[in-house]
Amino acid sequence: MYARDEDILKAAEDWRKAGRGVAVATVVETWGSAPRPVGSNLVIDNDGNFLGSVSGGCVEGAVVTEAIDVIDSGKPKMLEFGVADEAAWQVGLSCGGTIRVYVEKVS
């Protein structure tokens, strides 16, 4: 789901105030036909609720799964998806391109 940056930040703030674990995923690099630009964000809570977009729906499910692990472990991750990646067909990047997404816990 595409959302404005201020809505994403508000959701993160509200979820933290409610005692939920929160992570933010940010597009840090793209190549080819990636549908979201560098700087696009996705905020995720520990229950898998999310707001924003890092790929227009191509990799959000995989990013949410990884973000929950980041929330639990507290260790950030750099994720990379692309047509050369064996998971590309599973997450929907069959159109081409590469996307790198940095996921970190919000403290």
UniProtKB/TrEMBL annotation:
Residue ranges occupied by any XdhC- CoxI domain in the UniProt entry: 15-82
Pfam families: XdhC_CoxI (PF02625)
Source organism, top-level taxon: Bacteria
InterPro entries reported in the protein's UniProt record: MoCofactor_Util/Proc, XdhC_CoxI
PANTHER family linked: ALDEHYDE OXIDOREDUCTASE MOLYBDENUM COFACTOR ASSEMBLY PROTEIN, MOLYBDENUM COFACTOR INSERTION CHAPERONE PAOD
Protein name (database record): XdhC family protein
Organism encoding this protein: Pseudolabrys taiwanensis
